[in-house]
Specification:
This protein is α+β, with helices and mostly antiparallel strands. The chain is built from 9 helices and 18 strands. Strands 7-18-12-9-11-10 form a 6-stranded mixed β-sheet, covered by helices on one side. A 3-stranded mixed β-sheet has the order 1-14-17, with helices on one face. The protein starts with 10 loop residues before the first helix and ends in a 9-residue tail after the last strand.
């Protein structure tokens, strides 16, 4: 008997037909570069309730140059503050209809077991929710995603509260921002470069601390293609060399001014993030003999002291809530059983001014050549 020549979305029919492809063919394939890169590079901090992050703002007027007759300075004027982060929890359901379960008991040769299917789909939903939240988490019950932590606004107009610290009240707790005012491919006045390249270089410069350069530029596929097109038009094709990130994460990437450039399907439209996911020192930028990573005074004082120079992102988790399963239960008088997988995840940042984001004046210019 031949197969049924008709379209159907009937779950039981698709599951039980014999004359068919034996595996579901996925119709939507997406790879989240940021979430996988973040899990590889970010520091993991265990948090059972909330964690306080003390920050040091630098010495006040502690030192004083003196001559004969001058008075010694008063006690040192410390400038420290404290932020905090808490856990965020994700619940993913995995349900099964009791009648379906009863009807399939004693049938181990079925195409796939309903319970296994439910668990597999729950895992997929879990990954999608985490990947989306890494970019678009809006705080509250959700994680603080990049769009919340790094505002697409000039530093003076940023108002978000990140890690319990208000950007509006604390100027030192603001991210870098560059705005593109011409279409990406427009040749900037006085140069032979696309306006998008000029703005991208400006963003990298703002996020460079001494000779500590950003590690990643993450954007949308359209912007990624514009950057690639610009590099091909002004240089040789051999400049488009990929690197190990491709093999690790299965996505395209290349180097632009020393940074890994890649795209993520969950990144917001017309947005470019410049991040220190893996701090990396480029000695060649200031001479091969320059061994200073950030600032000599801080590095000297920080050795075996309470001062940390970390400025990147970190992952906040509750070690007691890692894919924790709640026992299956059925609502009153319903033949349906549901269990839940509970996971914890939040994002934090140690020094927000190291990181930046770029947008445009009409939310289209980075995407438009």
């Amino acid at each position: 008997m031949g197969s049924r020549q008709e379209f159907s979305t009937n779950f039981d029919l698709v599951r039980t037909l014999e004359n068919r492809q034996k595996k579901l063919v996925a119709q939507e394939l997406e790879k989240s570069y940021l979430f996988k890169r973040f899990k590889e590079q970010a520091q993991v901090i265990n948090c059972h309730d909330n964690i306080e992050v003390p920050v040091y703002l630098g010495p006040g007027t502690s030192g004083k140059w003196m001559q004969r007759g001058d008075l010694l300075p008063d006690a040192q004027d410390s400038q420290i503050a404290k932020g905090y982060y808490d856990n965020r929890y994700l619940a993913v359901p995995a349900g099964i209809d009791k009648i379906d379960q009863w009807e399939n008991e004693g049938n181990p040769g079925a195409l796939f077991k309903l319970a296994e299917y439910a668990q597999w789909e729950a895992m997929l939903a879990h990954f999608r929710a985490m990947s989306t939240a890494a970019f678009n988490g809006a705080g509250g019950a959700q994680p603080d995603g990049l769009s919340t932590i790094l505002e697409k606004a000039t530093p003076a107009t940023q108002t978000a509260t990140v890690g319990g610290i208000s950007k509006a009240a604390r100027s030192w707790w603001r991210n870098q921002y560059v705005e593109l005012t011409q279409n990406f491919g427009t040749v900037a006045a006085g140069t032979t470069l696309p306006a998008g390249f000029i703005s991208l270089l400006a963003l990298i410069r703002q996020c460079t601390i001494g000779t500590l350069v950003p590690s990643d530029i993450i954007t949308t596929q359209n912007v990624f293609e514009n950057v690639k097109r610009g590099m091909l038009e002004i240089g040789a094709p051999q400049y488009m060399l990929t690197n190990r990130v491709d093999a690790d994460f299965g996505v395209n990437s290349f180097k632009f001014d020393g940074q890994d450039v890649s795209w993520d399907p969950y990144c917001g439209v017309d947005t470019v993030y410049c991040l220190h996911l893996k701090d990396r020192f480029e000695a060649a930028r200031t001479g091969a003999n320059d061994k200073t990573k950030i600032a000599t005074d801080f590095e000297s004082v920080a050795t075996n002291s309470i001062l940390s120079l970390a400025g990147g992102f970190f992952m906040l988790i509750n070690p007691n809530v890692r894919m924790r399963q709640l026992a299956p239960r059925s609502p009153y008088r319903q033949l349906h059983e549901t269990k839940w997988w509970i996971d914890s995840f939040n994002m934090g940042v140690f020094r927000i001014s190291d990181h930046g984001v770029a947008g445009s004046d009409n939310n289209l210019r980075w995407e438009t050549w």
